[in-house]
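Just curious: can you write whichever protein you like plus the matching structure tokens?

***
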Amino acid sequence: MALLQLGYKSKHFVPELLQGLENNPVIECFDALSDNPVPLFYKELDLCYPNSKFILTTRPLEAWLKSCEWMFTHKRKAWGFDTRADVRQIHERWYGSNFFEKSVFTEVYFKHHAEVDAYFEHRKKDILRLDLSQDKDHWEALTHFLEIEAKPTQ
């Protein structure tokens, strides 16, 4: 939502990435992609689109686990995730399961953050970590990172 408000053509939840990155029309139609399965492909996207910028939104482990548990027990049925092959494929690849298991999700959480840190270790200007649990205005950090002088639109 923040990227849309800043004027970027952005797509949230991009299962079309499962079809491959090469000649993928969805990628070419947007300035920014977010949510699953983007984390599965950030390295490949980085190679295909040099000079791209990446934003890793974070929150404390327990808050993230609580959100995942809710999603996998309530949201998945309400949103039809149980019947969508693409969603099942994303969850299988990302978490190794289509069901919430705290120990597995905890491992994925730490592994992903460590891999992102290692990947961008020498490219700090290409990654922004936004801790969403912090009660502060993230617009300044976001616009500075994106090198734009913009205010969010309403």
In short: The mean pLDDT is 91. The CA atoms of residues 60 and 78 lie 26 Å apart.
